[in-house]
């Protein structure tokens, strides 16, 4: 049996346009000298995939999904080129549609701290130890941190293909070095009840400056948040923080033991 000639992109689009204009499959077939079954197939594909492009054939969808699963930063252009080398011609919109049907969409890669293996293990240990802690315990914690805001730094965006709720998987993130650049340092704190003080640190952040920030802002924040008796303070293991451990003890602050 002779192979059926493939309809041009323009013809497929015309079929959809006529369908949207209210014409029946029979009427469209007569107008374009096509079989009703051919017209129906084009319309069904458009209703299902919202495209008239040729869909990847045979194992192409599996190849597309497998490739982005191994390397989420693969671009649509990379996939088009890979498939062309494998003998399958597809377009970028077709790639997007194929991945969306697998629950994958293009998202900005999340920036996360660059962690050493020992730090990863310490955080995992901490999470397991506190897995069954009651919610009330966490409501009694004041969380704090400082950060540098980059005003004129390199903030280029990287895209990744991922499923919903997978934004923090290591393959979908960009490791960053904390305080790697920028020119505004901020310190802030919050609890389960909401945010509290956020201040700009105008001098170099060292142990003495950190102690001054705590002495001027921590207790006022706790009072404003109406923290219960015995509330707990959290900060990370930055050297300037650990250097203030004795001062915190003298002030009778309870400090949450924090992983590296």
Q: Your description of this structure?
A:
By secondary structure, the chain is of the alpha/beta class. The protein has 3 domains: 52 residues, Winged helix-like DNA-binding domain superfamily/Winged helix DNA-binding domain (Arc Repressor Mutant, subunit A, Orthogonal Bundle), CATH 1.10.10.10; 50 residues; 145 residues, Ribonuclease H-like superfamily/Ribonuclease H (Nucleotidyltransferase, domain 5), CATH 3.30.420. It contains 11 helices and 9 strands. It has a 5-stranded mixed β-sheet with strand order 7-6-3-8-9. Strand 6 and strand 7 form a beta hairpin. Helix 1 packs across helix 3 and helix 2 packs across helix 3. It is elongated and about 90 Å long. The mean pLDDT is 84. InterPro entries: Homeodomain-like_sf, HTH_SB, RNaseH_sf, Transposase_5, Transposase_Tc1-like, WH-like_DNA-bd_sf. One of its GO terms (molecular function) is DNA binding. It holds the Pfam family HTH_Tnp_Tc3_2.
Major beta sheet summary: 5 strands, mixed
Topology, number of strands: 9
- The multimeric state of the shown protein is single chain
Percent of sequence in beta strands = 15-25%
Kindly provide the name of the CATH class of the largest domain.
Alpha Beta
What low-confidence regions span 5 or more consecutive residues with pLDDT below 50? none
Quote the average pLDDT. Answer: 84
Structural class: alpha/beta
Shape: elongated
Instruction: Identify the strand order in the major beta sheet.
Output: 7-6-3-8-9
What is the annotated CATH architecture of the largest domain? 2-Layer Sandwich
Q: CATH-wise, what's the superfamily of the largest domain?
A: Ribonuclease H-like superfamily/Ribonuclease H
Binned, the helix content reads 40-55%
Domain Transposase Tc1-like: 62-132
Domain Sleeping Beauty transposase HTH: 1-52
InterPro entries: Homeodomain-like_sf, HTH_SB, RNaseH_sf, Transposase_5, Transposase_Tc1-like, WH-like_DNA-bd_sf
GO molecular function: DNA binding
